[in-house]
Amino acid sequence: MALSYKARRRWSLVILLVGLPLYIAFAWWITSLLPDLPVLVELLVFIVLGVAWTIPVRKVFYGVGKEDPDA
Q1: Contact, 13 vs 61, CB < 8 A?
Q2: Helices first, then strands: H and E counts in the chain
Q3: S-S: 27 plus which of 19, 32, 38, 49, CB 3.0-4.6 Å?
């Protein structure tokens, strides 16, 4: 079942205000468990973790910044 425009806007707000800080804390914890890595490898880990959160929620954010298509 597809989410309505209003539902996508609400869920995107919840994801940004609650989910993203939780994910940042999780990523911070994961990176603290890693041993000292070379700078480029560490940069690659941060880039992967920075993009990884968007993959499962991309459909929620799709089209949220545009006008309501039902209006």
Answers
A1: no
A2: 4, 0
A3: 49
Q: Long-range contacts: 41-47, Cβ < 8 Å, 24+?
A: none
- What residue type is assigned to position 62 of the chain? Y
pLDDT tens digits along 28-66: 998 899 898 899 998 999 999 999 999 998 888 888 888
Reported as type and span, the H/E element at residue 27 is helix 20-33
Residue type, 18: V
Three-state DSSP class for 67? coil
Q: Report pLDDT for 1.
A: 63
Stretch (H or E) spanning 52 = helix 39-52
